[in-house]
From TrEMBL:
Domain of life the protein comes from: Eukaryota
Organism, scientific name: Rhodocollybia butyracea
Keyword Membrane: yes
Keywords on record: Membrane, Transmembrane, Transmembrane helix
Protein name, entry field: Uncharacterized protein
Keyword Transmembrane helix assigned: yes
Length: 322
């Protein structure tokens, strides 16, 4: 007779893998968090204090400040979650406590959920700023963002419920798996579409802007052409697309293993890689966003140079077209 434990890992096996993954996640997130805080201090010094100039937009400073504040809070939580799970487990050894299950199962998806929504919002906002006179672009991004938020929240709720059931009853999450897989897949696809579309729109406008600047006689001497193209793609959001694709690939790999005959979860290497990647994605997204801010502050931006501001970029092409 086939038992449950022949199909699914025992609670002790789950906890052993989870403890190890939490320890690795804590170390990686702590290192990334320290780098992130240092870059925040450098990039925001004198940047978040609005200056009264013709090219300064007050609402832009508010949006940037809110996004950075949310990112700092989320990355802090992303360090606290693995630390809290480790401490709660050690304090309740040899049996796992309810607080451990809450830390590892419920606290796990929150940083990822917040950072995906924040990063998608920033990409959508920047694309709309670069194309301020296109109502269709604003409408498309608004629809995609609302759909994305719904799918991401549905995934988080399904994940929390499924993982608590799995942790307490050691039954897996067969009853929750279709909803979890569907919401996760739809959320990933929607988020990836937002990032790809936003990256392309920002890249096109930046290329048009640089072409206009060359026609006007402006030349950038600090960077080579290859460095300029690389920074341009970094600013446009290519890194976010890469993270999304990597996350989707790991999720699809795990889904394929879970759907394999016999119901076996699959090689531990895939599960561990997936757990660590998901754990550090919020930190990588936050680090990526602050690196873009630092590029702008150091005047290495491919879109905001010494001679132009973000607002004049949006007008350079639209003004020429009228």
């Amino acid at each position: 007779m086939t038992t449950l434990n022949s199909k699914f890992p025992t609670l002790a096996e789950q906890l052993g893998v989870s403890i190890y993954d939490n320890l690795i996640s804590l170390i990686l997130n702590s290192v990334l968090y320290g780098i992130f805080i240092a870059l925040v201090l450098v990039s925001t010094s004198g940047f978040l204090i609005p200056k009264t100039t013709a090219n300064t937009s007050g609402h832009a400073y508010i949006i940037i400040f809110c996004c950075i504040s949310i990112t700092v809070a989320t990355m802090t939580l992303n360090v606290i979650v693995p630390l809290g799970s480790l401490l709660s487990y050690v304090s309740a050894m040899p049996e796992p406590s309810s607080s451990y299950l809450i830390w590892t199962r419920i606290g796990y998806p929150v940083p990822l959920l917040v950072m995906i929504i924040v990063s998608d919002f920033i990409v959508s906002w920047r694309a709309c700023v670069m194309w301020p006179f296109s109502r269709y672009i604003k409408a498309i991004f608004m629809i995609f963002m609302m759909t994305n938020i719904i799918f991401q929240c549905l995934w988080a709720l399904s994940y929390m419920s499924a993982r608590v059931v799995q942790g307490i009853l050691v039954l897996g999450f067969n009853s929750h798996w279709p909803t979890l897989l569907l919401s996760n897949a739809l959320g990933l696809i929607t988020s990836l579409v937002i990032n790809i579309l936003g990256t392309l729109l920002i890249g096109v406008k930046a290329w048009l802007h640089r072409r206009d600047m060359r026609v006007l006689g402006f030349r950038r001497k600090r960077l080579t052409k290859s460095q300029h193209v690389l920074i341009l793609w970094i600013e446009c959001g290519l890194g976010l697309c890469v993270l999304q694709v990597a996350y989707m690939a790991i999720q699809l790999a795990k889904a394929g293993l879970l759907a394999s005959p016999g119901g076996v979860i699959g090689p531990s290497q895939v599960n561990s890689l997936r757990n660590r990647l998901v754990a550090v994605i919020p930190s990588l997204v936050g680090l990526y966003l602050i690196i873009v801010s630092l590029i702008v502050k150091l005047k290495l931006s491919a879109m905001v140079g010494e001679e132009m501001s973000l607002q004049t970029i949006t007008l350079s092409y639209n003004g020429r077209a009228t």
